[in-house]
Amino acid sequence: MATEPEPQGPARRTPPAQSPRSSAASSTLRAAPGRTAGRIVPAVSRGLPTRTGDSTPDWLEPAMAANGIGSFDWDIRRDVLEGDHRACAILGLDAGRFDRSSATFLAMLHPEDAPVVRRRVERAVAELGQCGAYYRTVFPGGELHAVRFRGRVLADAFGRPSRMVGFVWDATVELHKRERAGALAALREERSRFIKEAARALSEAVTVRDVARVFTELPLPGLPPDGLVLASLEAGRLQILGASGYTAEEMRPFDRAPLAAAHPAGEAVRNRAPVFIASRDEYRERYPEVWPRVSGGNPRSAWAFLPMVASGRVIGICLVSFDDDRELDADERTLLSTLGGLVAQSLARARLHDAEHELAAGLQRVMLPRTVPSIPGVTTAVRYLAAGSGLQIGGDWYDVVPLPGGHVGLVIGDVQGHDVHAAGIMGQLRIALRAYAAEGHPPAAVMARASRFLADLDTDHFATCTYAEVNVDYGVVYAVRAGHLDPVVRRADGSATPVPVAGGLPLGVDPDEEYRVTRFSLDPGETVVLCTDGLVEARGMDLDTGFARLCAAVCGDLPGRGESPHDPLEVLADRIASQAADSTEREDDIALLLLRWDGPAGGLAAQQLRRRIGQADLARISELRGELRDALRRWGVAELVDTAELLASELVTNAIRHTDRDAMFTARLYRESAPSGEPLGRARLRVEVEDESDLWPTRRTPGEQASSGRGLMLVEALADGWGVEPRGTGKRMWFELSVEPVGGPTES
C-alpha cells in the first residue's frame, strides 16, 4: 500500500548533551551505529508544535499551508514525535488520547497497515535512508482517514540514526477513489464472470424449457432484478416461455396476446434495440396508450425490454424489471444487451432442437405400429427407446403381424444409419415385410422377398432383421435371421438362453440370398425376446457381455433386484429396458419385442410338441428327433429320451416311406393328478403320427438278412402301449411310454 511522497527540508537536531540511555522518554528499542535494534515506531507530541528556532524558509510555509501539508520531527533516541498543527490535524491527534508512546500511536492505525508502516520505518532507520507509506487511521469520532507520509533518517556525529524528519498529508480522498475503483473493478470482474457462466449455462440448455429455466434463474450482478420474463414472438403474438417475480395471473393477459406497436416491447422489436425505462413517470410519458394496462396492480418501477435477434430476425423479448426507480448506467445497459444476445442464440438453437425432436417423434409414431394387435393364445409387449443424441430417430423397428390360420409373425429389425433417410427406408421395409407375411408366405420366402425389395430401392443401405412365425396352437416358432441377433427364450423354469438361429446376409446385400428356417418350441408360459443391438452393444461393452446382461434381466437375476422370473410381461419389458444406458449417453436406438405363449385360447395346454413333416423333407426327421430330445428334457422326463426318440423315428419314417402325403407328428405329456388336483408323480408320454393313407401297417417277421420290417416289432417291444386308429381320411399311429416317479418339475 506504500506510495512515496516528496521529502521535507532539514529539521531540529536533538541536543547533543542528551544520552539515549539516560533519557527518561527514550524508546525501548535502541539503535546501534549503522542499524536499528528491535522495533522502531514513532511517537506523537501532545498538542501543537513544540519546536522553536525552525530554520524553515519563509516561502515554504505558505506552500505547505496551501496544500495541506504538515511536517513532523521524530527523535529516534527519545522516541518522541513532534509535529506542526497541520500534522496533528491530519493525524487526528489530541492531547487526551496520545501520550507520546509508540504503542498508543500504533493503536490508531488500521490493523492491516500498522505492520507495513513498522517494517518501512525500521528499514529506513537501519539503512539511514528514507521511507514513505500510505496508511489508514481512525479518528476519535470513529471516522476512517487515510494518511501519506515521507521521511528521511538523519545521523548524529557518530553515524548513528538520530532523527527522522518529513512531511505528512491527508489522502482520504484518494482512499475513497481507490475504494470506488476497487468496487468498480470487482463489479466488472463479477459481470465478466457472470457473462461466462450465463454463456456456459445457456450453451448447455437443450430445449426451450431449459432456456427459460436458465434465464429466469440468472443472478444478475450489481443489479438484482425483481422480475424476469422470457417470451417468444410467434406471428405477432407473445408466448410466455418462463417468468420469475410474476404470478401466473399477472402473466395470463399477456400470454399469446398481440404485441401492440405502442408498447415498449413493440418498439424494441421494431427497432431491434433495447428499451430502458427508469421510472413509472417515464413509462407514463413515453407510452401513454399502454400505461393503463401496466399501472393497474403492477408493482414495478423500472423496466428493460431486450429484443432477441437471431439470424437477422427478432424471435422474442426478454423483460427485466425492478421495484424501485433505476437509471441504468452504460455498463449495466451493455450487460443486459449482451445477455439478450446470448439468450437469443440459445433460444433459436433450442427451438430448432424442439422442432427436430417433434419431427422425429412424429415420424417415429408414423413408422412404428401405433398399437400391437391382441391375438388369443399369446401376450406381447413392446418398447422403443430413442438414442440420446442426434435427431432421436433411426432405423430400428418392431412389428407384430396376424397371419392366416391364427398364427402370429414377429419382426425386429434395424436399418443401417441413424437419420431421417434410415427412418424412411425403415418405414418402406416394414410395410413391405408386413405385406409379404400377411399374404401367407413362409418365413424364408418373406425374408428373401424383403431382401430383394430393399435391394431394388437402390439406397446403398442394408438392414438386419429377424422374422419369426409362431404357431399359436402348438407353440412352435419358425425363425429366420438376416444378420441380426439371435432371440432369447425365457423357459418355464425361469432360465434364459439365446436360441441359435441359422443366419443369412443382411437384407439388401444380395437380392438372391436364400434364408434357412430354424424351428424351436415353446411350452406354455415361455417367452421369446427379440431386440436390436442397441440393447446389448455399447461403448465399453462387447456383445457377449451384453447378451449376459440381457439374459440376467430376462430371468430376473440383475443385482439388487428381487423380481420373480414369472413377472407379468409388461414388468419384464420395463426391467429389460431399464438396463439400457442412460438416454444422454446411449448412441443407438433400442427396439424390444416380447411374446409369451399362453397356449391355445389363452389357457395352459398340456405340454406338447407338434410338427408337420413334408413328404420330400427327409432331413426334417433328424431335426424332429433333436426337438423331441430337447422337449423331453424340458418336461422333466429325460429318462424317456432314448426310447421315445427311437420309436418316434420309426413311426415317422414308416409314414413318409409308405405314403405320398405329409405326416403330422404330435408328442404330449400327461401327468396324473389326485382328486384334489395335486400331482401324483406319474407321467405318460403319448406320441402320435398322422397321415392321409388308408394303407394300414402290417406286422412282419423279417428274415435274418432283411434290412427292414422291424419297426412295429420295436414299437411293440418297447412301448407301454401302441395302436392304429382310423381317421376320416387316413390313420393315426400312436405309442405311449410311462415313467414313475417324474424327475423334473410338474406342469405349471
CATH topology of the largest domain: Phosphatase 2c, domain 1
- What CATH architecture of the largest domain would you give? 4-Layer Sandwich
**Distance between the first and last residues' Cα:** 90 Å
Largest sheet: 6 strands, antiparallel
Name the average pLDDT.
Answer: 78
Gyration radius from CA atoms, angstroms? 49 Å
Structural class: alpha+beta
Number of domains: 4
Share of residues in strands:
25-35%
Number of helices: 18
Please tell me about this protein's structure.
The chain is of the alpha+beta class. It folds into 4 domains: about 1-170, PAS domain (Beta-Lactamase, 2-Layer Sandwich); about 190-360, GAF domain (Beta-Lactamase), CATH 3.30.450.40; about 375-600, Phosphatase 2c, domain 1 (4-Layer Sandwich), CATH 3.60.40; about 605-740, Heat Shock Protein 90 (2-Layer Sandwich), CATH 3.30.565.10. Helix content is about 30%, strand content about 25%. The protein has 18 helices and 27 strands. The strands form 5 sheets. The chain has a 6-stranded antiparallel sheet with strand order 8-7-6-11-10-9, with helices on both faces. Strands 13, 14, 15, 16, 19 and 20 form a 6-stranded mixed sheet that branches. A 5-stranded antiparallel sheet has the order 2-1-5-4-3, with helices on both faces. β15 and β16 (about 475-480) form a beta hairpin. Residues about 1-55, about 705-710 and about 740-748 have low confidence and may be disordered.
